[in-house]
Amino acid sequence: MDPVFLATAFLFGFGFRQIGMPPMIGFLAAGFALKAYGYQTTEFLEQLAEIGVVLLLFTIGLKLRLETLLKREVRGVTSLHMVITVVLFGLAIFALTTTSLEMFTQLDRASSALIAFGLSFSSTVFAIKALEERGEVNTLHGRVAIGILVMQDIIAVLFITVSSGDLPSPWALLLLGLPLLRPLLYKVIDRSGHGELVPLFGFCAAIVVGATMFKFVGLKPDLGALVLGVLMAGHARASELAKSLLNFKDIFLIGFFLNIGLTGVLSFETVMLALILVALIPLKSALFFFLLTKLRLRARSSLLTALSLGAYSEFGLIVGSIGVANGWLPAEWLTVLAVAVAISFAIMSPVNIWGHEIYVRLNDYLVSWETGKRPPDDMPIDVGNAKVAVLGMGRVGLGAYDTMCEALGDVVLGIESDPVKIAGHKAAGRNVILGDATDSDLWERMQAAEIKMVMLTLPELSANLDVVSRLKSGPYSGEIAAVARFPDEVPILEEAGVNLAVDSFTEAGVGFADHVQQRFEAELLGIKSGG
After folding, report:
1. How far is CA 170 from the centre of its chain?
2. How many other β-carbons are positioned within 10 Å of the β-carbon of residue 44?
3. Which pLDDT belongs to residue 448?
4. What is the pTM of this model?
5. From the centroid of its chain, how far is CA 159?
6. What separation, in Å, do the N-terminal and C-terminal C-alpha atoms of the chain show?
7. Which of 135, 127, 149 is nearest to 341 (CA)?
8. What distance in Å separates the CA atoms of residue 7 and residue 11, rounded to the nearest whole number?
9. 33-87 residue pLDDT tens
10. What one-character DSSP code corresponds to residue 479?
11. Within a 10 A sphere around the Cβ of 505, how many other Cβ atoms?
């Protein structure tokens, strides 16, 4: 890669990080800045972007459960939202052909509908990155959002196939036998150890087996990576495999964001037309919220899902390029779509960061849209006689839970957002319930709760800080202990109001629990004696 690309991406990413914005917005800005100075995208950069998307979908597949796609809120919302969006956006865009805006006068009903179709898709890269940065991939709204994105990917494959006029190769039928590869894949990763072979296996599975195989038979390569990830999701080391690819995926995705910025020229007319399209985003998100609440999700889950899916998709550029190639769309509109996608990323990123606060501020109004019986994931929680709650039952949380149970007995409760993990914990006899720690309504849903101590073991600093903020502003008045991923996060947690923060790199779950017992000896003695 050109050293200028690397330096510019780092400087802009670093700059945006200093003002509390996600680095990916800086990478987008870097792409626009490079384009303004005459730089063009390169074949190498496009390859990096493609690998980044493939790895992203593979790692998501490792966490995806097929039952998510079969839920009514996923199937129903995806189809209804797309149909309604194409109709409403198409009519709005066609109505603008009556204005004096030259580029709109070039459109007819069909091209207006095509643009609306491109805008109906949500960005897989943006949504998943936003969920990952907040540690919410396995929450209810995270799972619903990912399910909708996967369904949209399937629709995208069908569109590409139909618009190109080329059916997938007859060899595509052989892909139905992919589940037969699962035992072989399991055996290979079992014998790969825990070193550098693990991420290398991930690259081979995602790119060589998944993406290349699907591309060979005329299907989307990134869909192949997703399918391979789903095949591997049931393996005990799926989480380890995903973590081993984390940094690689993030580095390669920088190419994706740079590429978006390098795609279009920021002329005044282009930006103005793109902003008109961006102005439709509130309608897109509101429609997601409306449909999800009508399918009985709580207002909070519906809002956070809708915000995650608000940004326009990179698939809009594919729709634009296909439209231009087939003569369905004026060539200038490809640049407009590129700029609209980039601006939507820049706008929706801070909106997603403030999503929880938006819900708190608009709670009374949003709750009024709730209808009917809630899904099991959204039902009230009965915690029995629990006095100590461990939020997040990963490696550290598990160690902390077991140690506290040995000291206190059955008054310890685990709270986890991943239903699959909960099933494993229940099978092992642990008292673990389904709950989203970042849910501002969590304590209201925890019926008859008299929690005296909360132990935070969530993997992301932002998620832990979010929980602390909600505990401090709500009815909870007990002690708070938290695990930090890095030493420099300890003072940040303490400043936020955590009574005890421990560095997880020097203390595992058992060590964390030991620190808690030493620090809160008197309080825990009272809990044990039933006080």
Report:
1. 34
2. 12
3. 42
4. 0.69
5. 24
6. 63
7. 127
8. 6
9. 888 888 888 888 888 888 988 888 788 788 776 666 667 778 888 999 999 999 9
10. E
11. 11
The helix (H) or strand (E) run that includes residue 502 is strand 500-503
- What's the token pair of residue 435? 């709950």
Closest CA to 289 of 141, 465, 470, 396: 141
E strands, 383-457, in order: 388-391, 412-416, 432-434, 446-447, 453-456
Structure token pair of residue 72: 């009514």
d(CA 462, CA 166): 46
DSSP, res 54: H
Residue 476 Ramachandran class (φ > 0 left, ψ -120 to 50 alpha, else beta): beta
Q: How far is CA 485 from CA 22, 325, 462, 505, in A?
A: 19, 49, 11, 6
Cα separation, 356 vs 374, in Å, equals: 20
Query: Which tokens in the block code for residue 233?
Result: 């999701």
Q: Which two tokens stand for residue 302?
A: 């519906």
Tokens of 308: 């995650």
Q: Does residue 449 register a pLDDT over 60?
A: no
User: Using only C-alpha atoms, what is the Rg of the chain?
Assistant: 24
Tokens of residue 267, six digits: 């002329």
- Dist CA 82 CA 333 (whole Å): 21
Instruction: Tell me the three state secondary structure of residue 22.
Output: coil
pLDDT per residue as tens digits for the range 125-167: 788 888 877 777 777 788 889 889 888 877 876 787 677 666 6
Is the CB of residue 103 less than 8 Å from the CB of residue 332?
yes
Query: Rounded CA gap, 132 and 140, in Å?
Result: 14
Residue-wise pLDDT tens digits, 416-429: 877 777 888 888 88
The region that residue 529 occupies, defined by phi over 0 for left and psi between -120 and 50 for alpha, beta otherwise, is: alpha
Query: What are the φ and ψ backbone dihedral angles of 122, each rounded to 5 degrees?
Result: -105, 150
Determine the Cα–Cα distance for residues 27 and 5; give it in Å rounded to an integer: 10
Instruction: Give strand pairing partners of 416.
Output: 434
